[in-house]
Amino acid sequence: MENLTFDLAKSPLRELNQLLHKEARNGKLGKVTVLNPDGAHNIAVGLDCPVEVDVQGHAGYYVGGMNKTATVTITGSAGTGVGENMMSGKVHVKGFASNGAGASAHGGLLVIDGDAGLRCGISLKGGDIVVGGSVGSFSAFMAQAGRMVICGDAGDALGDSIYEAVLYVRGNIKTLGSDAQIEPMSQADLDTVADLLAQAGIKHDPKEFKRIASKRELYHWNVDANQEY
Amino acid sequence: METKPAQTKYITREESAGYDSKTLDYIRNAAAHGLYEIRGMGAKRKVANFDDLVFLGASLSRYALEGYREKCATKTILGTRFAKKPIELDIPITIAGMSFGSLSANVKEALGRAASEMGTSTTTGDGGMTQEERQSSKTLVYQCLPSRYGFNPDDVRRADAIEVVIGQGAKPGGGGMLLGQKVSARVAKMRTLPEGIDQRSACRHPDWTGPDDLAIKIHELRELTDWEKPIYVKVGATRTFNDVKLAVHSGADVVVVDGMQGGTAATQTCFIEHVGIPTLAAVRQAVDALEDMDMKGKVQLIVSGGIRSGPDVAKALAMGADAVAIGQGVLIALGCNSDSYIQNGVHHPAAEGYAALGTAAGFCHHCHTGKCPVGITTQDAILEQYLQPEVGAKRLRNYLKTLNMELTTIARACGKQNVHHLEREDLVALTVEAAAMANLPLAGTNWIPGSNGR
Description:
The structure holds two protein chains of two kinds. By secondary structure, chain A is α/β, with parallel strands linked by helices.
């Protein structure tokens, strides 16, 4: 296992991803430190082995996209779609994240230390997301499965048309979306929040969180639910 | 004098054109249910289509090829712009994207088998890739849809091409729909949804908005696949000239344009009949866009939406398409809307099944119910047995073979050694509408409506 430094100011992104796809898969790489990301898009997408990637600076769109088993850390902020459609592994943004963070993630853990933009956790399909700060409007839109822990506030229409995903919010919720409701926290919920916070390395009292889940009123065509579709 | 009452039966029984029987049914149905009608298949209304065009076969001014002796190539290559491994097909007729969920696993297997035998491609749909279709399909196009149901990087890697779906002809601007009857345990698991719910897919992608974002998304898919696989972009036909330009700008290798006659397994009728433009008009706009950008031949064009026959394929190619995709024609070849289904070589009547849906063979559009009387658009354990993969594959192979024979027959008659040499000059229009939409002269004239200010 070799640790390596890759400077994006000197070599193209294509070489980095090729290296991460081919060499890392052969088990030759332990940790890759990426220098001068300078907001480049698509850094470390489609990883498929337990390699560690440390992006030293800001990343553009889709950093760590469709990740499987790898650990991707971004020391700066991340653009749209960080960790989108992740299957497993971990993506950790130490700064802020833009729109659609963790969109349609099927598994794994996405941690954002700062705030996340619009539509965080949209179409979530089983992944876990922990946001240290606040999330923008339409977060967890149509989220199907998985869990989101939001330590700050949530914007408008949180959990609109949500399915079986469960959201935990510590701060204020501007508005809930259609079919989302606040539910009492059970012991299992407190344990879940404690566990996810521990995994994210963020300290809060789980008792400060509210649980948001689906009313399940939009699951079937219903004449009385007029226009809520 | 004896008086005879004036005859008034044509006045007293005059049907209103605006409020005809269909409209009365529609209003009564709306009043009874408070919910719009949802159905399958494509637009039923009459629109200008490929039937309104004819070929100018060779005569004295052009040299025809012998129908059976002389070669006429049909090989089709898609994805030559950026992909390291373009798709090579034996025929320019592909199978359109249709989901496992809307179709049974047996049907997906039949599609894969027939397509592989004919050297063409099949396409997944909204709901992910099944093992059956990957195994049975030599060339499989994997769709990346707004819902991302079952979307998985492993499947991206084992696909032969990726199709980013922006919209489809039956419902441009709308998302997918799969009613509870079809959300079986397996479908629900693949889509990460509770079993039996009425599933409504998203209409916008979750992680990008607009063409500049799409360019980055396509770049992600290229990076993920190490630039090997062609990336298609599929649009429902509306503002096709602009949409095709933006798809090319975003880095597509192949653009798929689906006209309003294109089918669906379930959507609102108002969508099917009232949103989108006919395929004929869309092909011309798409080709205009490619020519305008000097991208004709560099970015390939696949046309779909109401392609039914060999002549339809030939006309689409002559207008500038590189290939076509067929959905409804394929299902009809398998037995959709047939009055019987075939099991172990025996035809069994399906009339009762149609009657239970309140319809009859030839009129059925009840794909959304999952109660397909011939076992095609279903997830029901009994009904799905009505379509055996080997029977379906054989029928579909015959259909594709017939289309290809008709295509080459027409190409040879027009003097072409390669079906891709068919050109606009080989076509004229039979109606003013078709002439205007296709930008072709009305037969026997040199008049192209709207061209040169005329």
